[in-house]
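Schema walkthrough. Field components (list of strings):
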Amino acid sequence: MLNFEFKNPTKILFGKGQIENLGKEIPKDAKVLVLYGGGSIKQNGIYDQVMKALNGFEVLEFGGIPANPEYAILMDALKVIKEEKITYMLAVGGGSVIDGVKFLSAAALYEGDSPWDILTKNIRTEVGLPFGTVLTLPATGSEMNSGSVITRKETQEKLAMGGPGLFPVFSILDPQVVQSIPERQLANGITDAFTHVLEQYMTYPVQALLQDRFAESIMQTLVEVAPRIMKNPADYEAAANFMWSCTMALNGLIQKGVPQDWAVHAMGHELTAMFGIDHARTLAVILPSHYEYNFAAKSEKLAQYGQRVWGITEGTTTGIAKEAIAKTVAFFHSLGIDTKLSDYTNAYEGTAQKIKTRFTERGWLGLGEHKTLSPADVEKIVEMSY
Amino acid sequence: MLNFEFKNPTKILFGKGQIENLGKEIPKDAKVLVLYGGGSIKQNGIYDQVMKALNGFEVLEFGGIPANPEYAILMDALKVIKEEKITYMLAVGGGSVIDGVKFLSAAALYEGDSPWDILTKNIRTEVGLPFGTVLTLPATGSEMNSGSVITRKETQEKLAMGGPGLFPVFSILDPQVVQSIPERQLANGITDAFTHVLEQYMTYPVQALLQDRFAESIMQTLVEVAPRIMKNPADYEAAANFMWSCTMALNGLIQKGVPQDWAVHAMGHELTAMFGIDHARTLAVILPSHYEYNFAAKSEKLAQYGQRVWGITEGTTTGIAKEAIAKTVAFFHSLGIDTKLSDYTNAYEGTAQKIKTRFTERGWLGLGEHKTLSPADVEKIVEMSY
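Field assembly_structure (string):
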């Protein structure tokens, strides 16, 4: 097991009806900015529940934060925060809205020239403007971690940021919100969370026995509830397990003491930036090729995953490992998620070369758990994903 | 899944050599009281490591906190804290020292007449005197939770307290400390942590699929590493998994969203108070009888446990459930832990009756996940444990 530090101060309020407890978590004298996305919360009743719970607070709102939260739009929100002297933010949405609010949390107190530097200069935020979240879409785990990914259309970039000051003060997880999520986004959420676990697990064994089992527990639970969720998102018990699994998949716990990969995300982000493909679907495109390309390095862990998550009992290590990849692809397909780039765009030729160039230009650190994947490796992996 | 709230702000520094990072976690101007137990830390080098890491701080020390932290001794420490205007405490020890420091954290800022009221009047501590811990004995999980159990010899009582103000600010978990722990305490630690998990798991299913799997993960890991630890406590990888499993067994995570039992602890505490039997061993005495007595209510979960933790694949639900209890007893025996009260004392006659009376006098709330166990039930369970 590797040495690690772990601290996660976010307070979770989980379950039916928890939105009404919102007001107790925010300082009475706060001036609150409620931020949300495309407005679906106004159709499904969540907006009304939130506003009712904020009765008595001074509240402003900012809607229209898009999927893959866009820098230019967030800069408009930042203006409101500064002009109105907002003291507390409430993100009502999925990972995009929460990630956007994390950027704002950092940017509101940032003293440098341009908030864009936070992303390009890897500036860690030690203290941010406080915020809570009401999660409307289980997927990214952003509701209980301190990371964020921001997109800038202008430069076709998607960059990460974070820091201990960016944990939500609290997050409200009411599984009843799952019933109004469209099928496409449910499939994305399951795929995203499942891939998060794999990025922190599918490396090589370091005798982190408990972390491995926790990771496998999350994947087993997602595999178990996925068909129930896809069939009937109003199945509360399935929704509750789906929601808590997504949070636990990326709240820091399972990554402590183990090597991590994250190459799938690095490559996937480029596909979203270039083609606008849903984040989760880009992961499903890259992941199988990545595991096949790095098969030798990952085969021991792939076999453990095959045995414990997919119940494969027969075969050699290599055989079980290969079957485990096939089972993963079949799982994505069972959710209606395509796993080849050509399923999403006809203009895929040259993509691998382009990503290779972008990575090289941005300063290359090496990808994967050993930081050894070169731009040439990335090119081959992306090509295998066509 | 039941509704829940979860927040755990303790920072964990885990791994080889983490003690030297102690000083970074404590405010520079703090006046620190270092508290410890019987002095074994002076033999095994931990005391020296801690004092070296505290170089530059104003440091006082208070040793001699006994197993089952005694109220009278803690009151002496409280005097030191008040007279010396201590601003920060550092607990160096196992659960007893840490629990004692939690009591002091609460008592130092308590404004009522007598700190004993904190225990007898169930006063929750919202803000305590800040403290960190250096864990020297994995077992109780106290290093990452806000609960404490205090003993008062005068009245032969063992009472619990807690509150959100009693989380350690930080805890240092260096698995290298395990190598100097005596065999008896290693066995106790494994038994204690294993039973903690069972108290939060062995109730009835509520479709908390992920929590169940996390609980099973901890138990599987303890079962896997126990023989390695008992054979060679200097096996770092085994020690690391043992240590992290003990912490995760009682840091709040696996108990969220599920019913909890804790009747084994309630009865076990009385055996420690009456006979001075090691805490963990009292759990091993009570647990099998408790599960047999409440077999019908727990059989579904016992069978799940038998299948997933002990790998029992054949038999009816009842058969697997019964075998699961037998496997648990055999596991305790494999650690050298006796599971009958008569193994520990010849004066066991009348114990059940006496515990029944004590519980009745203290005001009866009902024990177990349904709060339905009466004093008469307790009497029968304790009798079955003779």
